[in-house]
TrEMBL record:
Region (Disordered): 1-20
Protein's name in the database: Uncharacterized protein
Organism, as annotated: marine sediment metagenome
Amino acid sequence: MRKQQPSSPKKPILTGKPCPRCKTGRLHKDGFTAGSKQRYTCRETSGDRVVCYTTTEPDLPYVNTQSGIRKEGDKNPQFRRPLGDIKRFIITAAQNGTPVHKNFLRSLKQYCRFNDAELIVIPIRYKNPTSSWTQSQINAEVWAPELKTYLYNQRKKLNANLVLLADIKTRPTATKPLSAFEAITAGESGILGHTKLQLLTVPTPQGRYPKILTTTGAVTVKNYTDSKAGKLGEFHHCLGACAVDIIGSKFFMRQVNADRDGSFIDLEYEYRPNDVYHAEPALAVVLGDTHRKFMDPRVQHATFSRGGIVERLNPEYLVFHDLHDGYAENPHHRKDPFIKLAKAQASIAGIEKEVVDDVAWLRKAVGDRKAVIVPSNHDNFLRRYIVDTDWREDVNNAEFYLDTALTMVRSTHMSLAGSETVDPFTHWVEKLKGPSCNVRCLRRDESFMLGQIELSMHGDQGPNGARGSRNNLRRIGVKSIIGHSHSPGIEEGCTQTGTSTPLKLEYNSGPSSWMNAHAIVYANGKRSLLFIIDGEWCFE
Ligand SMILES: [Zn+2]
Ligand SMILES: [Zn+2]
């Protein structure tokens, strides 16, 4: 029998392709990826690493990192230009190796021309081997040529409170692009280039206001891999931008969402590829929780005064959340004698007066528009009071109690779904509003949609009896605008308003993420938050 000759230990048999990372090792087959692709690994000169290099593309002459960035020969292109003294910006992102939406870019340029604004495009990278646009990996470093003069990838303070985080690259398929960046700026707000729209407010102990973190949306078309993450990225791809107005140390930020034809509405103007037009009246302004008794007069002024939000956007509907604060009958006060004492001294224990004042205010605010009152937990304090209280122990409110309770008793009946009773706050609004006031009080679970956006949920109740939040209401299969948390934000299909009250009330101690913010539904069905800072809300 012939003896098998061992190969010489000094001279390995060179099989496999050369490793592009270490140059001296070889790539050998090493099992399969989760996506059933052949994996090749170099282990020969691993040094302090377990393996030297792993790839599914052994023929590439350069190293591909997970983020799709070519290491070798990649000089990380720097895009910068002076941005001093600019007061208005419109900021978007562009994916590498991907065409721009030409008409959206043209509309963005109309915005810049009309508002004397600066367009900033943050370049972001994504490795998409199945892309129909990225013919070769060489394109990985290339952005659409039309964008050349607008690209910018530096970190830049736009004013004392706002930082452009254009140096940060987040994968376009990240489901929560802002997660882990909450602390990246100290007290300043930040803008991150990303194809998916997300916005949140973060409490800052050092500031009077929380900081806002937002992504931008993109000016490039959808270009994602044929994977689960890619499909999700494609679904949430936002053809959009972040409009920023700077006034001294303040800034105002709005979301721009383009239509398929590349046009978009910002405030009362519509920007189309060829020109700027007056937009059709907005479908709705959804006010940040009203809590009428505690409404901040500066928010009231910004919203309802001449030249204010309602006059300029001319919405068909006003939508109110937590219209009634229910301070007089707040169930959380029942066991606190000091709050009771303060209320008695200030003569604000009268429930009837608060309700009557609410409706009088509502009539004036609504005027000849249409309005919708979303059933909310604070409005529901009135029902809880009637259900839980013995009128003999609150004689100051006895007549109002008995009057309301009698109406409820007379309305009660059994339906197919169980017992039904009129909502007491709804009853008083209907009774006091007068025939000319076009206000509709929704029932719990009654739908109210405008522009395919569900506006009937307050946000206190989530799916299947859970507490409501943007996170559990973002994927209920319908776009929505909710209120309740007083902390505005955007999470996938769910936009949440802020509050119309001062940012510190009796019940929010500690650092707070509350802000004054309404939400708009424009005529084209797109939404934006509208922040109010010290009574101001935009550049003019
Ligand atoms: Zn509220
Ligand atoms: Zn609420």
